[in-house]
Amino acid sequence: MAALCESFTLCGLSPASGVGLGGGLLALEPGPDPDHVLLTDRGRTTTLFKVSDQKPLGYWSVKHGQVLTCPVVCNFETHEYIAVHDDKVLRIWKNEDINLDKVFKATLSADVHRIHSLPNGGPVVLFRGGGVRTLDALLEAPQQEIENIISDEVIKWSEAFMEGKQPVLIFTTEKDEDFFVYVQKLKTNSLQKYKLEQQELSKPMNFTAYIKNQIITLLCLCSNDCVYKVLIPLMQNTEEEEQILPKSLLLNLSVSGSVLKGTSFVVLDKDHIAVLGSLTASDEEPRECLTIWNTKFQTLQTSKELPLGTSGQLWCYEEKFFFTHGKVLTVIMYKCETSSLAAAVGKLKDRQTPDVSAFVNWNTLGHEELADSFQSQQTGALKYESKMALRSKRNAAANVQTDRLAVGKVLRNLQDVPTRIFEDELKQLMSKAQALDLQASIGSVVTALINRYKTNPKHYHRTFLLEIVQTYDLSYSLCPDLMAVALENKDLRLLQTCLLRFPDIPEEITYSCLEIFLSFNEDSLRRMDVNLESVICYIDIESDNKEVKTEIVENGFSTEQEEGTWDTKLAEEAHLTSDGELCPVGPQKAALLNAVLRSAYSEAFLLPHLKNLPAKEAVLFLRYLFYLYVKCSEKINTTLPGMSSPTINQIMDWMCLLLDAHFTVIVMLPEAKLFLSSMHKFVRAQVRFYSELNKIEGSLQELQRIHQQKDPKIYSIEVLEII
Question: Which ranges carry the Nucleolar protein 11 C-terminal domain (predicted)?
Fold first, then answer.
């Protein structure tokens, strides 16, 4: 059984996203960690991403006028990165390197086609002429002559494997519509050349391969909508110089009259492959889909429609699919279980997740219903019913039509109905969503509500949208237009909730929320619905806008008490001026700003936006951050009370960001002078305090070591003196 699981956006692909992939994605390669991937664009830049956090860890770019001509890869043995720009110039660098002009450089004697990096075999370089070298051998003599093996042939695809301890490289070429396969074993420096069997109306468009038991299995995705299998033994046959490899049909990509025009595919395990392509049916527009097929039983296991379109590229690492969807790079997790007939026809029961199968009965669907089933984001996959179920065909068809009704069809039936009826229908649709595709189903409902608003702005379902976001675990990538519409309507409560619950909000949207929160005056905010849970425990504002301070005594310690002469001196030095004693913003604005502080972001991508913040609002935000910093420092555990309150690390990170973005402007403002002076004194006092703690750190560690060595068998009291 195979299933597509949750999905999320890794990054945007537009120039405005800051990732530098505006020219399109050249390739995606695994990084030094299983959770890292390397993205190379069709231009000058490469970016290292941590997939689980959807955040960049490193960003490198070659100079203007230079172009990366093959994907950047990681040397898994040295944790270095390897790039080739302008076909022949090799660059090698590490994580701490910033400027690629200053890293290792070598100019090669021939054009590089691609570099493949093997976990236990090191990087292997394939040249456009078919020559192959290990990176180590190439670095010994970068200008060594590279043989031209393939003459007028053009390399179409290549891959590298480890067979035992030996690196093996396979690549395919094309010449005059003939396709050839080359297998290079690097340790023995042996090269085998084969010719693919030609079939009429069956031209290979894409390849993938895997190796097992000294046999390479080459899979070909062909123009006749079929996948063929070719077996290539690694044992060299010296009798023939060029053998013809026969192709055997592995899979036909057609389902009940609909055909999948595949553009790329990957092998998942011995019985499953994933294919990305366009599903076409008679009299209907093609729809791009990601599908998983069982090659053993010739069945389509699951599919997901991609309405925003793709680039046709598909990558797969660590049980995750990576592909472009519209203007973003999307990640979808999947699972593949042991292949069995029950799983292939959708009859395998999952004890942990009852009825996770949402497959459509192929025997009861007509062509139109089949197309609708692909359209529906509730329908996670397709399943067969046995022939014995045909006698209940009518009832099954009625149930399928009711349970699998697409959101788009609901909208067509409810174009002009009142808001209450419209929302009731969507709630019913949500209640029928299968557990496996719940997130996608709710995302479809949110998209439907947003599209209705775009068609007619009077239909803004504020309460319903807020209820959905508060109830379900959604993400920005599932409903990317939601926060833009909320910003347009200045729906502060919805924006606040999204900031607290969405893990993948782009920095541009986060900044837009910050800007609109700071722009509201306090009188307007008092009349608005804002969640005050994050501030109600440490800030209260009376009608005259004066803060009522409520000190919390923790573990017998109060910030009002003085704990000694030197501690009193530090406290006096850290005493705030009148600008810092009171919260500079009201509780509503404070709660909204706290939501911004808690949202995830990348410093490199947020900083350019923060520089556009007006100076007056930047100073106000900085004063509030300093107020929170002081509040945290007053407590022994340096945490603010209340739910969803920002941590001291989040507060400090934002203070540093804001000072980096506006330091020159802030130091020139007369009204900020007193505030900056107070901040300087407070931070200086804290530095002195921690310096005193550092002085006794060694003594405390020694006492701890002595205490661990002793093992008193009876109760005892020890008096330890620190001199």
Answer: 423-721
Q: Find, among 43, 78, 50, the residue nearest to 64 by Cα.
A: 43
Rounded CA-CA distance 180/196 in Å is 6
- Residue 719 exposed, middle or buried by CB count within 10 Å (0-12, 13-18, 19+): exposed
Which pTM does this prediction carry? 0.54
Could you tell me what percentage of the chain is helix, strand and coil, using 3-state DSSP and rounding each to the nearest 5? 35, 30, 35
**What does the pLDDT look like over 228-256, one tens digit per residue?**
999 998 876 655 567 889 999 999 998 77
Write out the two tokens for 550.
Answer: 């409520």
Q: How is the chain split into domains, by residue range? A: 31-149, 412-489
CB-CB contact of 332 with 320 (8 Å): yes
Share of the chain above pLDDT 90, in %: 32
Output the pLDDT for position 49: 92
The helix/strand/coil state of 555 is: coil
**Where is 7: in which H helix or E strand?**
strand 2-12
Compute the distance between CA of residue 611 and CA of residue 523 in angstroms, rounded to an integer: 27
List the Cα angle 649/653/659 in 5-degree steps.
145
Tens of pLDDT, residues 158-179: 999 998 888 999 999 999 889 9
End-to-end CA distance of the chain: 69
Fill in the DSSP letter of residue 478: G
Q: Which CATH class is domain 31-149?
A: mainly beta
Element (H, E) at 625: helix 615-634
As a whole number of angstroms, the distance between CA 601 and CA 502 comes to 11
Rounded CA gap, 453 and 479, in Å? 14
Element (H, E) at 394: helix 393-403
**Close Cβ partners of 427 (under 8 Å, ≥ 6 residues apart):** none
